[in-house]
Amino acid sequence: MGLLEGKNALVFGVANKRSIAWGITAAMQREGATIGLSYAGEVLEKRVLPLAAENNIDFVEKCDVTSDDDIDALFAKAKDTFGTIDILVHAVAFAGRDNLGGRFRDISRDGFKLTMDISAYSLIPLARHAAEIMPDGGSIMALSYYAAEKVLPRYNVMAIAKAALENIVRYLAVDLGPHDIRVNTLSPGPIKTLAAAGVPGFRTMLSHANKINPIRDTATIEDVGEVAVFLASDGARMITGETIHIDGGYHTLGLTVTEDDID
Ligand code: NAD
Fold first, then answer.
1. Please, which of 68, 97, 182, 244 could form a disulfide with 240 given CB 3.0 to 4.6 Å?
2. Tens-place pLDDT, residues 171-188
3. Which of helix, strand or coil describes residue 246?
């Protein structure tokens, strides 16, 4: 019997089969969860709809997380379809190219607001709606990155949004804990996805992490899926408000000189 047998999961953030949300979806499905997918908008339909069909996922709904109407409609449909849910995955982020890279001090007011709205604030209404259809408790998880904790030059506006997101996770964990709803952050190292392609210097980050991570490798969407399954399972019932790094130990390092670098 799968670890998530009998559980319903709503997953936000599949853009294509390289998405972290897709790695999570596949792992949760393997463990017996029934999945509902939500994607951002029409431009993604041609990738997300076939992916869902190939994998027997019937619930596939558009939801722009900047729209309260979209969120209301999505959760009304989820309630009609599933009755109750057990798992919510927030794997959604956006920043305009002009506010990623470049000088930190040039971040624009509009760019800041939009990035915060999509990448951080959206977890609050999604969690509120999810909690209403989680009468038996549940597991909510959001995707963050180490730039929330330490300065990673060029990550700029997204770093601020991730710091906010991780704090939102902790506040939601306290707010929803008495309802047996756990809220956690998954923080993977760099993975080549559509969103990552917008981070200047991403390829160099990836090869650098590969070289210096204590585990000499970088995370995959499958690695994130396995941790997400555990967090969603009953075995994780006492874990909430946590940030779980899936980065081969990168976050433990200070100034690092590998054996290869010693001259
Ligand atoms: P991705 O591009 O596949 O996923 C990002 C998703 O956000 C897309 O599906 C996109 O449609 C969605 N999105 C953007 N604006 C939206 C809106 N207004 N409404 C609804 N959805 C919207 O890339 P990914 O790397 O899989 O990103 C998933 C999450 O993982 C993000 O939060 C990202 O910051 C985080 N993350 C990524 C990495 C990495 O290296 N790829 C590392 C750590 C954390």
1. 182
2. 999 999 999 999 999 999
3. strand
**Residue 39 catalytic?**
no
Cα(42) to centroid of ligand 1, in Å?
16
What is the Cα–Cα distance from 119 to 130, expressed in whole angstroms? 17
Q: Which residues line ligand 1 (CB under 6 A)?
A: 13-15, 19-21, 40, 44, 64-66, 91-94, 118, 143-145, 188, 190-191, 193-196
The answer to whether 151 and 158 have CB atoms below 8 angstroms apart is no
Q: How far is the CA of 4 from the centre of ligand 1 (A)?
A: 24
Q: Strand ranges (DSSP E) for 1-131?
A: 8-12, 34-39, 59-62, 87-90
CATH class of 8-261: alpha beta
Per-residue pLDDT tens over the stretch 41-75:
888 899 999 999 999 999 999 999 999 999 999 99
Can you say whether residue 154 is alpha, beta or left, with left for phi > 0 and alpha for psi between -120 and 50 degrees? left
What whole-number distance in Å separates Cα of residue 225 and Cα of residue 25? 7
Compute CA 73 distance to the chain's CA centroid, rounded to the nearest angstrom. 21
Give domain limits for the chain: 8-261
